[in-house]
Amino acid sequence: MLKLVVLISGGGSNLRSLLEAAQDAEYPARVVAIGADRDAEGLVHAEEFGIPSFAVSFANYPDREAWGDALLEQVQQWQPDLVILSGLMRLLPPRVVAALSPNLINTHPAYLPEFPGAHGVRDAIAAGVSESGASVIVVDNGVDSGPILSQRRVAVLPNDTESSLHDRIKLVERELLVQVVLDIANGTIDLKELVS
C-alpha cells in the first residue's frame, strides 16, 4: 500500500478524486496527510475524510529555502512513498526536490511541454490553439519540465473561457492522477527508472 502526502494551494479537486479512489479497498494507495502552503480551502477534504493536515504558510518564512525546509520536515514526518503536488502554486526549492525525488509528482493543466507555468490554461486560450490537455509529471528543478508520466489531449472549444476549459481539463487531470498512482503502486510505472 503506497502512502501518499498531497500538497495543495486551493480547492483540492484532484486531491478529492484520490481520496474517493482510496475508499475502494482494492485501490493500492492511501493519503496519510494533506499539506498546504496557506490556509487552503481544500483542507476541508482532510477534515471530511479524517486525514491529518498541516499548513506551512509561505508568509511565515524569510525566503523560499526556509519555507521549503519547514515543508520538507512536515512531509517527512509521514514517511510517504509518494508526494503529490496537486495544485500547489509554489515552486519547491532544489533541496526539497532532491530529498523527495523521484517520488514527487505534479499535475499540470496543459499537454506538456506546451504551456508550462502557472497560467497554462490562460496561455492556451491566448494562443488560439484547438487542443490543450492535462499532464502528470515527475517534479524536477525546472518549471513543469520533468519526465511525463501520463497525458491526454483536451479540445479547446470555440466559445471556451479560461474557466470552462479549466473545468474540462480538471476532469481529465483527476482521471490521469488516479491512474498514475495506481500504475506506480503496481509497478507499471517505475519512477527510479524514469529519472536515472
TrEMBL record:
Q: Which Pfam families match?
A: Formyl_trans_N
Keyword annotations: Purine biosynthesis, Transferase
- Could you tell me which residue ranges the Formyl transferase N-terminal domain spans? 3-181
Residues of the active site:
H108 (proton donor)
Q: Which InterPro entries match?
A: Formyl_transf_N, Formyl_transf_N_sf, GART
Question: Where do the annotations place N(1)-(5-phospho-beta-D-ribosyl)glycinamide binding?
Answer: G12, S13, N14
What GO biological process terms does the UniProt entry carry, in alphabetical order?
Answer: 'de novo' IMP biosynthetic process
Q: What is its EC number?
A: 2.1.2.2
This chain belongs to the protein called Phosphoribosylglycinamide formyltransferase
**Species assigned in the record:** Homoserinimonas aerilata
Source taxonomy lineage?
Answer: Bacteria, Bacillati, Actinomycetota, Actinomycetes, Micrococcales
UniProt gene name:
purN
